[in-house]
């Protein structure tokens, strides 16, 4: 097999491309508990001329997939710099997308596709409770018509499309070769017979996602969940390992574990299709998105994902040509394969791949949905554990939805909800830090010999403060949150605000100066206003005002 060519994207500085600020990975958590140990696979070994090296690679994947159901992939042909450019483009999208584009390109999940822009108010087109998750998803029609893409990204579609093409046609194709070999099938079996083709993503999709920190009400309604425990419905999912630890996987010991950050690595999820095709030898990866450890609660999380889909018209069954299946039979004990098998043994048709994915998208529920997320509704108790149970076209899906494992984090967070400590060396420009008891934002950092000189600005008063810290020492960091509220009234010196779930909040003062004047002026003019409030260390201040989008 010819060695795989590395990713060679179009240039970032062609004429007409606006400047895109760099993406700086946020600091990694200091939390060490509840992290999974994932096996890491070096994909470049597939090109080795030594058959023993290739055999060893296949064995490693076999063990990782059959034991754990997930793995890291490294050396797949994209450099860290190229990857960071793609994250910078996602960051650029969320800093520049217009309100008009959000409205115009709003997704239609009822259609069974996530195509377009997802607002941060749940997984229905109609706005529900805030979930802080924004997404843009590219499906076939979105690649084919530039008008279906946010205008701010138009100059960069060459790079985004090249990246998705490389991920599908090079990385995923090689990964499917490895998986075909594990099943002892011809190299291109999964690529030729199961993977959907055409456009950069076939019937699958590519995603830019942004998870913003959530407010207390969302956190309480969802119990820390950002996305329910689930398996992906397609063939494979290629997720990029990110510094903000939210992705968790369900271990064999029936506990949730965070996926650690491995810069540049891909996290590979096995989807339902592969579980079925492999006759249960591959387990679809059970995963969810959960709140991060305490020291990352205030950070935004960008996530780039490629979902590889199976051919929509196919109904999946085990690949009986597989020598592995012929020799060892199928593995029946659990999961979607078992449920599909149940249907076929009753002489019933299983759903097509298209039906299977579209029904799950169209009926997806939110972690904030306190009506459905109850035992008796979408939850059941099995052996004392809370499980999420749904039925799609006669196929029962039961997945863990249990919270109790995270109590140690909960206690930790209560304790450390205002501040935490971090080595001064990890501070960057614009990072938060406490200087002389005040929450500040760093404006300058200078190293001299064994000490670091910090200059910072009080986030509430704007006053400049400075400090000298030993370069190996740690400093206190405030947890700074930014919430947006609707302005209902102004009561002398106080704002009467309303939280997204309708609770009144009347303890924030009208700020002094220009912003205060503007709030009063716009309110008197009858405008619907959203007020951003910054809070840190039990202090709160209104910091900006904007007009609420229509339909808010
Ligand atoms: O953003 C992530 O890390 C995972 C998202 C995910 O699991 C999904 O959308 O299926
Ligand atoms: Fe997923």
From TrEMBL:
Residues 205-310 form the Fe2OG dioxygenase domain. PROSITE patterns: FE2OG_OXY. SUPFAM superfamilies: Clavaminate synthase-like, Nucleic acid-binding proteins, Translation proteins SH3-like domain. InterPro entries: DIOX_N (IPR026992), IF5A-like (IPR001884), IF5A-like_N (IPR048670), IF5A_C (IPR020189), IPNS-like_FE2OG_OXY (IPR044861), IPNS-like_sf (IPR027443), NA-bd_OB-fold (IPR012340), Oxoglu/Fe-dep_dioxygenase_dom (IPR005123). GO terms for molecular function: ribosome binding; RNA binding; translation elongation factor activity. The keyword Protein biosynthesis applies. Keywords: Hypusine, Protein biosynthesis. It comes from the Eukaryota. GO terms for biological process: positive regulation of translational elongation; positive regulation of translational termination; small molecule biosynthetic process. Belongs to the eIF-5A family. NCBIfam families: eIF_5A (TIGR00037). This is Fe2OG dioxygenase domain-containing protein. It comes from Aspergillus minisclerotigenes. The lineage of its organism: Eukaryota, Fungi, Dikarya, Ascomycota, Pezizomycotina.
């Amino acid at each position: 097999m010819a060695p795989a060519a590395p990713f060679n994207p179009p240039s970032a500085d062609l004429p007409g491309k606006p400047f895109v600020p760099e993406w700086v990975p946020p600091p990694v958590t200091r939390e060490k508990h509840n992290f999974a140990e994932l096996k890491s696979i070096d994909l470049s070994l597939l090109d080795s001329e030594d058959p023993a090296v290739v055999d060893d690679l296949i064995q490693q994947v076999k063990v990782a997939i059959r034991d754990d159901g997930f793995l890291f992939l490294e050396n797949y042909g994209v450099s860290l710099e190229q990857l960071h450019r793609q994250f910078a483009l996602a960051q650029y999208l969320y800093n520049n997308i217009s309100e008009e584009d959000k409205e115009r390109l709003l997704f239609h999940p009822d259609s069974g596709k996530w195509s377009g822009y997802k607002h941060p108010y749940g997984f229905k087109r109609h706005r529900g409770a805030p979930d802080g998750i924004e997404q843009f998803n590219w499906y076939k029609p979105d690649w084919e018509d530039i008008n279906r893409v946010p205008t701010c990204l138009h100059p960069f579609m060459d790079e985004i499309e090249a990246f998705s093409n490389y991920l599908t046609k090079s990385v995923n194709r090689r990964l499917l070769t490895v998986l075909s070999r594990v099943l002892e099938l011809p190299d291109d079996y999964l690529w030729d017979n199961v993977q959907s083709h055409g456009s950069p993503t076939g019937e699958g999709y590519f995603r830019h996602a942004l998870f913003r920190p959530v407010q207390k009400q969302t956190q309480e309604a969802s119990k820390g969940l950002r996305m329910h425990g689930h398996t992906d419905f397609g063939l494979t999912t290629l997720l990029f390992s990110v510094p903000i630890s939210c992705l968790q996987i369900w271990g064999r010991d029936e506990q949730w574990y965070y996926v650690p950050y491995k810069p540049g690595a891909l996290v590979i999820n096995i989807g339902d299709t592969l579980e079925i095709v492999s006759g249960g030898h591959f387990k679809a990866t059970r995963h969810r998105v959960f709140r991060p450890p305490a020291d990352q609660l205030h950070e935004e999380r960008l996530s780039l994902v490629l979902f590889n889909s199976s051919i929509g018209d196919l109904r999946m069954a085990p690949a009986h040509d597989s020598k592995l299946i012929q020799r060892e039979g199928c593995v029946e004990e659990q999961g979607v394969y078992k449920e599909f098998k149940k249907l076929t043994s009753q002489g019933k048709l299983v759903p097509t791949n298209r039906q299977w994915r579209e029904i799950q998208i169209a009926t997806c529920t939110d972690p904030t949905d306190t009506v459905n997320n109850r035992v008796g509704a979408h939850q059941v108790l099995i052996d004392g554990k809370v499980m999420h149970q749904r039925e799609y076209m006669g196929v029962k899906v039961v997945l863990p939805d249990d919270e109790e494992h995270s109590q140690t984090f909960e206690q930790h967070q209560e304790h450390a909800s205002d501040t935490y400590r971090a080595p001064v060396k990890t501070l960057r420009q614009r990072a938060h830090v406490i200087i002389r008891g005040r929450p500040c934002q760093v404006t300058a950092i200078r190293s001299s010999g064994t000490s670091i000189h910090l200059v910072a600005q009080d986030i509430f008063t704007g006053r400049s403060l400075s400090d000298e810290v030993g370069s190996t020492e740690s400093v206190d960091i405030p947890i700074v949150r930014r919430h947006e509220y609707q302005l209902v009234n102004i009561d002398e010196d106080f704002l009467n605000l309303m939280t997204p779930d309708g609770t009144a909040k009347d303890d924030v003062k009208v700020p002094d100066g220009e912003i205060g004047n503007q709030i009063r002026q716009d309110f008197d003019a009858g405008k619907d206003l959203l007020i951003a409030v910054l809070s840190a260390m039990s202090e709160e201040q209104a910091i900006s005002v904007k007009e609420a989008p229509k339909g808010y």
